[in-house]
Amino acid sequence: MLFYDTELHSCLMLGTAGYPSPAILVDAIKASGTEVVTVSLRRESSGAKAGQGFWSLIREIGLRVLPNTAGCHSVKEAVTTAQMARDIFATSWIKLEVIGDEDTLQPDVFGLVEAARVLCSEGFQVFPYTTEDLIVAEKLVDAGCRVLMPWGAPIGSGRGLNNVYGLRALRARFAEIPLVIDAGIGLPSHAAQAMELGFDAVLANTAIAQAGDPAKMAGALAKAVEAGKAAFLAGPVQPRDMAMPSTPLLGRAFLNEA
């Protein structure tokens, strides 16, 4: 799948926040087989040495970095953070977050569209963290976004896909746009379900970082996204309201009780 002009083979992206140690993070990354990790600018710029050590670690692994504007609550803050991230991480990729609600961490979709328009005009390749709303998605695409990252559920909730109907409608409407489920994944079954709907990738952080064994969970999620993708490509049967016999009636033997 092409994300802007970059071809990725892994369907799993990893967040890098909240791991017990850098060594555990590295183990999880390796077990996941991911090619992309998200990185918060605030981690890099906070506590100089800690941030620099983390960035050096990511560079040594050789992964594609997707900086994000996590924690930004306004257009100005998100745009400024993105501009700084481009200088620090030397990439035009940016995961754009403009948070509108402190409790649910739901995106401010009005600010998100405005910030996306500004960043796309400046040459950024924007990965917007959004909802499953079709109208918002249309406006993001019109602003220049060529990838959409709808939430499955609130960030860190582990609730899976709260609105399967809405996500399925989004997939149908934007058949040519890469779609990544971002936020809410808690179990491998959630990731598999997203891929079975036809999504192109899943981004997971909390489900792995806070697991009892992050590396084992990362490996399980990697298998789940591949299984879900294979199931989607296989063309699964559609749910029916009535039973349908798997054995044909033609040729069935009947007993003569006369």
Structure in words:
- The strands form three sheets. The protein has a five-stranded parallel beta sheet.
- The chain has ten helices and ten strands.
- The protein starts with a strand and ends in a 24-residue tail after the last helix.
- The model is unreliable at 46-50 (pLDDT under 50).
- 43% of the residues lie in helices and 14% in strands.
- With 258 residues, the protein is of the alpha/beta class.
Brief sketch in words of this structure:
With 258 residues, this protein is an alpha/beta fold. The protein has helices at 22-32, 41-45, 48-61, 75-89, 109-121, 134-143, 164-173, 188-196, 206-209, 214-234; strands at 2-3, 6-7, 12-15, 36-40, 64-68, 93-96, 125-130, 149-150, 180-182, 201-204. Helices cover 43% and strands 14% of the residues.
Number-wise, the strands total 10
- Which range does the strand content fall in? 5-15%
Q: Mean pLDDT score, rounded?
A: 90
Q: How far is the N terminus from the C terminus?
A: 65 Å
- CA radius of gyration is 21 Å
What structural class should be given to the helix and strand makeup? alpha/beta
* Strand line-up of the largest beta sheet: 5-4-3-10-9
The parts where pLDDT drops under 50 for at least 5 residues are 46-50
